[in-house]
Amino acid sequence: MPPEQSAQPRAARVSARSAVEPFHVMEVLKAAAARQRSHGDVLMLCAGQPSTPAPAVAREAAIGVLDSDVLGYTESSGILPLREAIAAHHRETSGIEVSPEDVIVFPGSSGAFTALFLAAFDTGDQVAMTRPGYPAYRNSLAALGCEVLELDCGPDTRFQPTVAMLEALPQPPAGLIVASPANPTGTVIDPDVLADLARWCEEHGTLLVSDEIYHGLSYGRATTSAWATSRAGVVVGSVSKYFSMTGWRVGWLLAPPSLRRPLEVLTGNLNICPPAIGQHAAIAALGPDARGELDGHRERYAANRELLLRRLPELGLRDYAPPDGAFYAWCDIGHLTQDSVAWCRDLLDDCGVALTPGVDFDTVEGHRKVRLSFAGSTTEVEEALDRMAASPLLQSP
Ligand SMILES: Cc1ncc(COP(=O)(O)O)c(C=O)c1O
Fold first, then answer.
1. Among 40, 98, 328, 389, which residue has the least CB neighbours within 10 Å?
2. What domains does the chain contain, in order, with CATH numbers?
3. Residues lining ligand 1, CB < 6 A?
4. Residue 98 burial (CB < 10 Å; 0-12/13-18/19+)?
């Protein structure tokens, strides 16, 4: 060893901004993987993703371009045929006028959020979101130096924000994030409430970020797009959920003109471009030939949801958010525990069922909440419910 080289390299400096919360669900996944190795019996009701692969036509398209295309870098905002396909998809499903120029494609909607937060907000800006809500909004905004305002949303507003909540703030925030259908609650915002929020945000100079990545997955309640009311805000989309393509990393924004160039420049610097193979596969997934297969998945989620609605009360789980969409049930377990992380660990140990503790999604009430995902097969969901029914952890003390 040369004399100037010490045995222990000096630890690299770590930024203060990187001190954000981890995803606690990752701990559940790790424990579930260990249980699977030792017992081979894990039922995953903790995954926030479909249990199915990309639609067959998307996989065929991917195989085709592997042989025929260099698959090098693409335009940073995504290839034109994909932006055209996304625009057509929004026109068909939401009845809103969208052109390819409105669309910018990113590596997943997660990539879109990072670029958007950088493009739209400065350090110290206040951005409002729901509590409970998707934790990556909170954690990425915090890492970028924004102040997150958590709006306490409960059953009286379907766990969604309202204009009254914004009016109660000392000043209009720089941004408001709304997700419908939402994660973790699965609730769909009332179309009139979304329209009121969109108008209020436009009037008050608040950027409305409407996360619509679970559109296509609702069970009776209609979903509407924020762009149906105001195009001053941003709409977020992705192939991850309805299209069953989480790992392909393709998401997008519909952005108002002033944000387009900053977003393009930022994503060019941050990502160069979205994955080329994912973009080609996404074009096929957005086309008519994938529809039958994808609607089939939704029918399975609907059947699983019916099963849950029937059986949750039998398990003593009577207090849950209305599961209008996505593939989640957000349940109160306060009569069983005040430590949802330990309870989920114990449930996994007891019967091999993996649920997500609420602490990721709700910094105040999460210790008494769990999220069940019903994206798996109906047999798996049924078996998980049987095991839970037999577990002493579900028996009220
Ligand atoms: C509400 C919500 N938004 C965004 C994302 C990120 O999805 P992706 O980056 O795969 O598009 C997720 C993932 O679970 C989510 O639940």
1. 40
2. 16-53+292-394 (3.40.640.10), 56-289 (3.40.640.10)
3. 48, 108-110, 134, 179, 183, 211, 213, 238, 240, 246, 251
4. buried
